[in-house]
Specification:
By secondary structure, this protein is mainly alpha-helical. 85% of the residues lie in helices and 0% in strands. It has one domain. Helix 3 runs parallel beside helix 6 and helix 6 packs parallel to helix 9. InterPro entries: MATE_fam, MATE_MdtK, MdtK-like.
């Protein structure tokens, strides 16, 4: 078992353990965001504002759909991390099989439903009529790649649960590089339009899914399931389901709120849609490291919770809060003062109205990245100590506030779509306050 345990997060330097584990997560997400940026850049510069608006508005729906099985994988990973920290490998392997049943069945059902009801979903999002056809073409191909995307995420979270965050990074690097090459080939060389962007994404997802599966099978024989492990264990399924579906609901609620806000943004027309499409990519890129650090923090807490290492958990919490405060503060300053330059990466300098709208968005949200950083720590902590329902409650507070305020403030003529931007940090702050109260009341160690 030495191959597994050398990634044990219950030993060694606390700050070093979290940061070494978090770094590959950050780099992986950085690669993914770089691809998203490259995709947006190519679509915006080569295909024009309408294609950018269609792909950008599709992004929120794609994130919502994929967040369901990513939430399932995340919840499964929390249980696996606890069992790994407790050195209960036999139970862990039974949990892996139960996780496969839950994630696989849910993903297949989700794939069928999303393809069957794609047209009405596009209309519900208030997509402008002139963009409906191009949006359908893009999303139909993207959703054909849902199963390989789920396979990659399942094995990535499996490896991370035992402390291996590096291997998923390598396969993501291959996927992103291939995706960008195919984007250029299909959209610039073969003039395939948004269908080319979608096809490039699906092909790269298939490659990364096949690669990480074969790697895990060959390099981690300890994780292979025997016939005894592949028995349906309803007790194990209930335990996994209690975590995974609550985490799934948290991720889904989070992205459902974003999806509802996307529908409101769409109602303001193509200019605001294009601006939002570019600005939200910058926004996601900016706070991505604190999100990944929150996930690393969650794995660290889960392993130490399983090992009953209260001392490391308490010191880990202090370290995580300090790190998040420092990093989020620096990023806020950079985004606020360089918002115009960042928007010009995606939008031609002649499109002054689109750039101006995006700058306002970035300067409002960019001033409050500490709020979202703290919220990711709360999500990770409560998920890791067997309280995923609290993470769900915090998400409902954050996104519920955001949606209600977005629709209310946007109706005020003097605020218009700027009211949508202001609703986001207000939701973060309220959820953070609730997180502090829950932590003091439900501190389990």
């Amino acid at each position: 078992m030495n191959h597994l345990y050398k990634r044990d997060l219950t030993k060694g330097s606390i700050a070093g353990s979290m940061l070494r584990f978090a770094l590959p997560l950050m780099l992986g997400n950085l690669l993914q965001q770089c691809y998203n940026i490259a995709d947006t850049l190519i679509v915006g510069q080569v295909l024009g504002a309408e294609a950018l608006a269609a792909v950008g508005s599709s992004y929120a729906l794609i994130v919502f759909i994929t967040s369901i099985f990513i939430g399932l994988c995340m919840g499964c990973s929390a249980v696996l991390s606890m069992q790994y920290g407790a050195k209960d490998i036999r139970q862990m392997k039974q949990s892996i099989f139960s996780s496969l049943l839950i994630v696989g069945g849910t993903t297949l059902l989700l794939n069928i439903l999303s393809l069957a009801f794609l047209s009405p979903i596009i209309k519900i999002l208030q997509t402008p009529p002139e963009l409906e056809a191009i949006t359908y073409q893009y999303l139909f191909l993207i959703f054909l790649g849902m199963i390989p995307m789920a396979v990659y995420n399942f094995y990535a979270f499996l490896l991370r649960s035992v402390g291996n965050s590096s291997s998923p990074l390598y396969f993501l690097l291959i996927s992103v590089a291939l995706n960008i090459v195919l984007d250029v080939l299909f959209m610039v060389g073969l003039k395939m339009g948004v269908e080319g962007a979608a096809l490039a994404t699906v092909i790269s997802q298939i490659v990364s899914a096949a690669g990480i599966y074969l790697y895990t099978w060959k390099q981690f024989p300890e994780l292979r399931l025997s016939r005894d492990d592949r028995q349906i264990n309803f007790s194990a399924i209930r335990k996994i389901a209690s975590f995974s579906y609550l985490t799934c609901m948290q991720q889904s609620v989070m992205n459902l709120g974003i999806l509802m806000v996307q529908g409101l943004v769409n109602s303001f027309g193509t200019t605001v849609m294009a601006s939002f499409a570019a600005a939200v990519k910058i926004d996601s890129f900016a706070y991505m490291p604190v999100q990944d650090f929150g996930n690393a923090f969650s794995t660290f807490i889960a392993q130490n919770f399983g090992a009953q290492r209260e001392d490391r958990i308490c010191r880990g919490i202090r370290c995580a809060w300090l790190t998040t405060t420092l990093f989020a503060g620096i990023v806020s300053v950079l985004v606020f003062f360089f918002a115009t330059e960042l928007m010009r990466i995606f939008i031609p300098a002649t499109e002054q109205e689109i750039i101006s709208i995006g700058v306002t968005y970035l300067q409002i949200e960019g001033s409050f990245y500490i709020g979202i950083g703290y919220l990711f720590l709360f999500y990770g902590y409560f998920r890791a100590v067997s309280r995923p329902s609290v993470s769900l409650i915090l998400t409902i507070i954050s996104l519920g506030t955001r949606v209600i305020l977005a629709y209310s403030l946007a109706a005020i003529p003097s605020l218009s779509y700027n009211g949508i931007w202001w609703s986001v940090p207000i939701g973060w702050i309220l959820a953070d306050i609730a997180g502090v109260l829950f932590y003091r009341r439900l501190h389990v160690l």
